[in-house]
Amino acid sequence: MKKLLFAITLVTLALSACKKYQGDTTEIHPVKFLVSANYASENLSKLLSKTQVKITFKNNKNNKENIYYTKSDGTLSLDSISPGSYDISASIEVLPADYTRLTGEIVNKSIIFNASEKARTITIEDNQSINLKLISGPIGPWVIKQIYFAGSNATTGALFRDQFIEIYNNSDSVLYADSLYIAEAIGIQNTTSSIIYRQTNGQYDWSKSQGMPSNIDANNDYVYTRTVLMIPGSGRQYPVQPGSSIVLAQTAINHKSPFTGSDGKTISVRDPSLTIDLSGADFEAYYAPFLPRPLASDIDNPLVPNVNVLSYNGTDLVLETSGRMGYVIFKNKGTVDIKDFPRYPFPTIATPTANTDKYSQIPLSYIIDGVECQTNVATARVPKKLVTPLDALYTYVPNGIYSSQSVIRKTEGIVNGRRILKDTNNSSEDFDFLPLASPRGFK
User: Fold this and answer.
1) Which residues form the domain of 218?
2) Within a domain: residue 443?
């Protein structure tokens, strides 16, 4: 009997010990993890400091963030991190005087370098590592300030009719919005399809698209867009003062009040507090002229100028309410009309047909600012559409679809009454949210 009890005890201890190391049980067996941050440019790696690179670990299970800083050699050694899925990012700001002194290149603004890896799985094995390559991105005078994609309650609010995008003059000079382009960046929206070519990060491998030239870096030097809109104007028709913004509304009306749709029927909301007044928007997207059956809610406010629609998706400027899109603003730097830019289909394994949709290829060098959005549900997030120089990670609204929440860029400082918004090319750092979207509001 004693032998039997002894044997049972040994088996119990063995099972208990094994349970600790089960691969599907996280946060039980902390492990060691090494981060190395280096500049992607070998020349800059020799010149610029790697001390105090900010390293952020965001746990995809509970969205908790932990922040660390590298040593002088750009490394960070973690002695105890729980296994799981993490978004890992690195960022460092080099002040203009330091950048000029170290590189000899004269700049008048800080240079921000970023790197990231989304959904990195840390297992129960010790001594894993990651090498993050720091890249600088565009820091332009225009920034995307606020994106209201979530919409308001489908029953008591305005659904998606009240969506808008706000663009801000983050400089100290008057800018002209004329011929500024706003576009939705397209990419893979699921992680299960087996009929497409993918990169190692899960995103489309655009280099495999039909007709794509072989002598370009199709995945890293371009953004692919499904909607391209342009602010009209003669060149100096729409001035925007420093610290001011322009609002592009899906439909520029007061969504709190009843209105008559294009079908003659009244459209109203049960709870006006859930939605917003967009009658003061600067521009609106009016798709009805292009559609055989436009939405009844897509009415034209004659007091608000319409943007030029170069390409569009769906029945109106309906932003994906779960958030899983990228948004970019850009100006044309060349002599080729944007509408004549190359267009390519998704990189499907099967040969596309003549009727397959195609998407505009926009050079990264044209882009002034980009923001990646995702869903609030970590397990439903999709591979990033914007490369690290444009946006190292992403932003989202915590309450998700139809929550009336918007994502909004943080205020970094105020100079002579002018708000300067944070712009590090990392939306995880730069953006917060508003519990109720507010055109021209601040955070």
Assistant:
1) 142-434
2) no
Tracing tokens 């917003």 back to the chain, one arrives at 276
The residue-averaged pLDDT of 260-274 equals 97
Last residue of a domain, one of 102, 136, 170: 136
81 lies in a domain?
yes
Confidence label for 9 from pLDDT (cuts 50, 70 and 90) = very low
C-beta separation of 91 from 53 below 8 A: yes
Domain membership of residue 3 (yes or no) is no
Q: How far apart are CA 42 and CA 38, in angstroms?
A: 9
Report the distance separating Cα 213 and Cα 184, nearest Å.
23
Determine contact, residues 187/224, Cβ cutoff 8 Å: yes
State pTM to two decimals. 0.84
Asked whether residue 153 carries a pLDDT value surpassing 60, the answer given is yes
- Range from 132-146, 154-168, 271-285, 403-417 carrying the lowest mean pLDDT: 132-146
CA distance 47 to 26: 40
31-39 vs 128-136, strand pairing mode: parallel
Tell which of 136, 165, 186 closes a domain.
Answer: 136
124 vs 282, higher pLDDT? 282
Asked if pLDDT for residue 357 goes beyond 60, the answer is yes
Domain membership of residue 210 (yes or no) is yes
Q: 292: which 2 tokens? A: 């055989």
DSSP character string of 11-75: HHHHHHHHHTT-TT--SSS-EEEEEEEEESSHHHHHHS--TT-EEEEEETTT--EEEEE--TTSE
